[in-house]
């Protein structure tokens, strides 16, 4: 049975609770799991209706011409729209001409010609630098890194060049037209170098934006906004989602807001925050929690940098509890930034420590992937934990 | 032979894209289409008097020795037994590749990369090395390991992440490594091993060793910045390193025509002051001799050497790739049927009476049986223990990580079915 402090609690009740539980406030031991178990098998073929939701105020899917497509198709469409709209939009990267190793750039070379969609030599540093140069000339390069795990040779160009181009020149120059795409995150068998989620590295770099999408509708609208945005943007694509079930996507171009988190399920007991493919895991965890009477508010952060503090703070102020989950390692993952800001801004409303459920502080493993990732059961257990705190 | 090829992808009858006479005499390696053959083993330190760097060879495209003097020199250090061992390794490699490729298609292993078409460059070079040379490889060099003594069981333990995998099941299949064979563990990020090999070759020189570090990489990887810094460092710092580029015409779908405009990889060596040579990578004698002489030069003069071995990637890039999307059946047929380095050496050995069909069938059958039986055993074998999830990140497991591991253990204890195999 749950003994929840109702939302809207006052400071006194909060303080009383803190005194009462001061021991565990010091060390929040994650190994002490609740004895209640859930039948996890129910969630093996789970229908992710919440993750496939969209906010009606942001996008109209009902009254416009639509079609079904998966994430890969949606990303391809976004690039096609951008290239149709603006002659200066150009797509390139390793193996991009034949459609890309994930088929996201398929038909773009045929449609727009070899000058606007082309293979580059195999060099990420070159891809980023080349893209920056084009952007400096007023073009809209859309550069593909074959895997986010292989973006590091381009780190210098992204961190020291793209991110600082405007600031260091006093806005004489900028590379706002630059968009970089990279497939990221776990797929079940990727090991160290086909599984990484490097968002936190880039979240430490003022001057670039970092955006991630959770489904086809989001991917198309967010990528179009990234291309349109007048700042260099890194668009991370959870490659596990490329071929997942299709959803209904508007035929035309549309734009979803950057730096705006989305509450994809309202709730009262605990705020649960994630992004990218982790949203699927979290939806399952949230449904598990519902079974035991916990009503979660589920937030997709969508833009990692600059992030939507307001939506997160309002939610946690209301619920008083928060669980953040991401695949990247725990220490210094982007969850750390969220947790720090939440405790700064919501201190008096918090009923429990903010909890992060993350990848371990190890390289991404192959054979033990399922133990490494913050799966639905870990997230569920931690949701219970913050609620029972 | 053909039936094995067919299980990869059905080949239509070969309608060649070059004329027949050209086909028999002229090299058509996509990485240097206009290069001519040469019988002179020259490590260039200046641009040759030809428009394109020539390709050193000893055996023609039909497996006949056409370069007697070099052949003689090769045979001074390469006896019959070694030659037969080289060929055996080539067909063992091909047999293992075919079974593991198909195992991936059947969902029995998550991923695989074949070495088809590049057996001669791998094994010809391995045969010219000593046991104490240090290997820095890319990923398409299983033959080098195999020749040095990496067993079928060791290959399979890695691919199936068993508890006997030296890498403790942490990396994808084909990321082999062996301390005893001096093969640094493979890493997927391309070209990173090239400057590392320069550093190793420098350390080897400082220790007065008569060894080299040999670094294998693809022509695609040679576009990375790491390649260029590696060559410059090695030249300036007099590193005992051999850079061996496998120019197989493709980097996944990207043909060499989209990779570089210059004369392949060999021409780049000169810019850094490195003696450089281009060899027929499908001619095991030429590869052997080039590596043997490069070793000699490197260990005696304390310099790096660059070898560009022209070859052709005979299979898909990996099991995640479908090469029919970017190359024609005709092209593939030409390489797999006409230019196959295994056929070439087999013809030669058969003519020399060093090999016959009976030997062939026996080695292939034995290998097939061995790999198939290993396949069932490694599938059932115990995987690496969960405790290894957190070891080796550092020499000691940090406290924070120990705590994270406790949580994992508690979860596994609470939900054993969820974390057991099959879920
Ligand atoms: C830094 C980096 N970028 C991209 C990749 C993805 N990738 C893996 S293999 C490959 C092609 C390599 O081609 P090449 O070096 O010619 O070797 P080959 O596969 O032909 O043997 C690419 C692009 C990678 N592994 N590392
Ligand atoms: Mg290649």
UniProtKB/TrEMBL annotation, chain A:
GO terms assigned for molecular function: branched-chain 2-oxo acid dehydrogenase activity
Matches recorded under InterPro entries: THDP-binding (IPR029061), Transketo_C/PFOR_II (IPR009014), Transketolase-like_Pyr-bd (IPR005475), Transketolase_C (IPR033248)
Entry-linked Pfam families: Transket_pyr (PF02779), Transketolase_C (PF02780)
Assigned keywords, A-Z: Oxidoreductase
Highest taxon in the source lineage: Eukaryota
EC number per UniProt: 1.2.4.4
Enzyme class: oxidoreductase
GO aspect biological process, one term: branched-chain amino acid catabolic process
CDD domains tied to this protein: TPP_PYR_E1-PDHc-beta_like
Ranges for domain Transketolase-like pyrimidine-binding: 69-244
Cofactors demanded by this protein: thiamine diphosphate
Catalytic activity: N(6)-[(R)-lipoyl]-L-lysyl-[protein] + 3-methyl-2-oxobutanoate + H(+) = N(6)-[(R)-S(8)-2-methylpropanoyldihydrolipoyl]-L-lysyl-[protein] + CO2
Name of this chain's protein: 3-methyl-2-oxobutanoate dehydrogenase (2-methylpropanoyl-transferring)
From TrEMBL, chain B:
Gene Ontology biological process: branched-chain amino acid catabolic process
Enzyme class: oxidoreductase
Primary residence: mitochondrion
Cofactors, names only: thiamine diphosphate
Residues covered by the Dehydrogenase E1 component domain: 87-384
This protein's GO CC annotations: mitochondrial matrix
Gene3D superfamilies: 3.40.50.970
Protein name listed in UniProt: 2-oxoisovalerate dehydrogenase subunit alpha
Function: The branched-chain alpha-keto dehydrogenase complex catalyzes the overall conversion of alpha-keto acids to acyl-CoA and CO(2). It contains multiple copies of three enzymatic components: branched-chain alpha-keto acid decarboxylase (E1), lipoamide acyltransferase (E2) and lipoamide dehydrogenase (E3).
Lineage: Eukaryota, Discoba, Heterolobosea, Tetramitia, Eutetramitia
Keyword Oxidoreductase recorded: yes
EC numbers: 1.2.4.4
Transmembrane regions listed in the UniProt entry: none
Alphabetically ordered keywords of this record: Metal-binding, Mitochondrion, Oxidoreductase, Potassium, Thiamine pyrophosphate, Transit peptide
Coiled-coil intervals: none
Catalytic reactions of this protein: N(6)-[(R)-lipoyl]-L-lysyl-[protein] + 3-methyl-2-oxobutanoate + H(+) = N(6)-[(R)-S(8)-2-methylpropanoyldihydrolipoyl]-L-lysyl-[protein] + CO2
Record-linked Pfam families: E1_dh
Compartments where found: Mitochondrion matrix
One Gene Ontology molecular-function label: metal ion binding
Family named by the database record: Belongs to the BCKDHA family.
Highest taxon, organism lineage: Eukaryota
């Amino acid at each position: 049975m749950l003994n929840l402090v109702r939302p809207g609690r006052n400071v006194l009740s909060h303080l009383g609770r803190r005194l009462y539980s001061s021991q565990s406030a010091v060390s929040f031991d994650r190994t002490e799991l609740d004895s209640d178990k859930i039948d996890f098998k129910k969630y093996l073929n789970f229908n992710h209706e919440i993750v496939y939701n969209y906010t009606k105020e942001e996008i109209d899917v009902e009254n416009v011409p639509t079609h079904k497509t998966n994430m890969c198709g949606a990303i391809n469409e976004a690039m096609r729209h951008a290239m149709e709209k603006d002659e200066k939009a150009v797509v390139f990267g390793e193996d991009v001409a034949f459609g890309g190793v994930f088929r996201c750039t398929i038909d773009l070379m045929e449609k727009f010609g070899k000058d606007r969609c082309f293979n580059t030599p195999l060099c990420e540093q070159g891809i980023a630098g080349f893209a920056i140069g084009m952007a400096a000339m007023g073009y809209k390069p859309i550069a593909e890194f074959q895997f986010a795990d292989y973006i590091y040779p381009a780190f210098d160009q992204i961190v020291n060049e793209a991110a600082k181009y405007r600031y260091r020149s006093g806005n004489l120059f900028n590379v706002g037209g630059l968009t970089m795409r990279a497939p990221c995150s776990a797929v079940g068998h990727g090991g160290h170098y086909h599984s990484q989620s490097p968002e936190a590295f880039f979240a430490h770099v003022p001057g670039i934006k970092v955006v991630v999408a959770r489904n086809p509708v989001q991917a198309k609208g967010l990528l179009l906004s990234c291309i349109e945005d007048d700042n260099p943007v890194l668009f991370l694509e959870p490659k596990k989602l490329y071929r997942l079930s299709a959803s209904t996507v508007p035929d035309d171009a549309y734009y979803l807001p950057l730096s705006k988190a989305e509450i994809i399920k309202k709730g009262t007991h605990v705020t649960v925050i994630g992004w990218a493919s982790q949203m699927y895991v979290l939806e399952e965890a949230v449904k598990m929690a519902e079974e035991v009477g916990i009503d979660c508010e589920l937030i997709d952060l969508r833009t990692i940098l600059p992030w939507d503090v307001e939506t997160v703070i309002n939610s946690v102020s209301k619920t008083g509890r928060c669980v953040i989950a991401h695949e990247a390692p725990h220490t210094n993952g982007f969850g750390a930034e969220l947790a720090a800001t939440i405790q700064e801004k919501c201190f008096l409303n918090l009923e429990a420590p903010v909890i992060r459920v993350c990848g371990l502080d190890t390289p991404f493993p192959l054979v033990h992937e399922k133990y490494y990732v913050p799966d639905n059961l870990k997230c569920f257990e931690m949701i219970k934990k913050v609620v029972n705190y | 032979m053909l039936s094995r090829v067919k299980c990869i992808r059905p080949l239509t009858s070969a309608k060649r894209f070059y004329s027949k006479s050209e086909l028999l005499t002229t090299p058509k390696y996509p990485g240097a289409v206009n290069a001519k053959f040469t019988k002179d083993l020259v490590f260039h330190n200046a641009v040759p008097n030809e428009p394109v760097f020539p390709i050193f060879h000893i055996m023609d495209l039909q497996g006949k020795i056409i370069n007697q003097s070099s052949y003689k020199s090769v045979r001074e250090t390469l006896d019959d037994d070694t030659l037969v061992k080289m060929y055996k390794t080539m067909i063992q490699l091909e047999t293992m590749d075919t079974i593991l490729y198909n195992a991936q298609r059947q969902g029995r292993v998550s991923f695989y990369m074949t070495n088809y078409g590049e057996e001669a460059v791998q094994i010809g070079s391995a045969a010219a090395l000593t046991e104490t040379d240090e290997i820095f490889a890319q990923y398409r060099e299983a033959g080098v390991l195999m020749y040095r003594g990496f067993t079928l069981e060791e290959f399979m333990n890695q691919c199936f992440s068993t508890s006997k995998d030296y890498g403790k099941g942490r990396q994808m299949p084909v990321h082999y490594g062996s301390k005893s064979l001096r093969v640094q563990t493979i890493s997927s990020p391309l070209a990173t091993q090239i400057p590392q090999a320069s550093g190793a070759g420098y350390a080897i020189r400082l220790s007065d060793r008569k060894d080299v570090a040999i670094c294998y990489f693809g022509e695609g990887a040679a576009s990375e910045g790491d390649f260029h810094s590696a060559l410059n460092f090695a030249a300036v710092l007099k590193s005992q390193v051999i850079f061996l580029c496998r120019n197989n015409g493709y980097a996944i779908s990207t043909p060499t025509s989209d990779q570089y405009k210059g004369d392949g990889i060999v021409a780049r060596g000169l810019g850094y002051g490195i003696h450089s040579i281009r060899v027929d990578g499908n001619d095991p004698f030429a590869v052997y001799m080039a590596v043997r002489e490069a070793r000699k030069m490197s260990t005696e003069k304390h310099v790096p050497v660059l070898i560009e071995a022209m070859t052709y990637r005979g299979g898909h890039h990996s099991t995640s790739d479908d090469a029919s999307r970017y190359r024609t059946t005709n092209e593939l047929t030409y390489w797999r049927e006409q230019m196959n380095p295994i056929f070439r050496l087999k013809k030669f050995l058969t003519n020399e009476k060093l090999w016959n069909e009976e030997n062939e069938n026996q080695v292939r059958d034995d290998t097939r049986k061995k790999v198939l039986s290993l396949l069932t055993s490694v599938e059932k074998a115990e995987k690496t223990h969960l405790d290894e999830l957190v070891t080796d990140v550092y020499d000691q497991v940090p406290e924070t990580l120990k705590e994270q591991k406790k949580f994992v253990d508690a979860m596994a204890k609470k939900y054993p079915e969820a974390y057991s195999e099959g879920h």
